[in-house]
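Morning F.,

Quick status update on the modeling queue. The single chain you submitted on Monday has been processed. Sequence for confirmation:
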Amino acid sequence: MLQSTSRESLGIQLKDNVVIFDEAHNINDAVASIHSVSLDEKSIERAHSQLTRYFQKYQTRLKGSNVTYIKQLLLLLQKLISFLHQSLDSKSSG
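Structure tokens below.
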């Protein structure tokens, strides 16, 4: 009910309708799970590596704004990797 793709596949339209949720205490968890994802360190490292290779290969063909966006993504991925390394190091030494 909460995902538009699920509603569309079932032909459910919410406009001008009242929806009553049984077991409504589970809605917060359902919404959180719809809008969240779990990534491990290896997945983030792989994404960084693949995006780096892509950028190196196509850098001369990319327009300025796309170069900026890719650099921002690479920086974000690198910061996530660094954070995870620090977090894992502090857990193993603690």
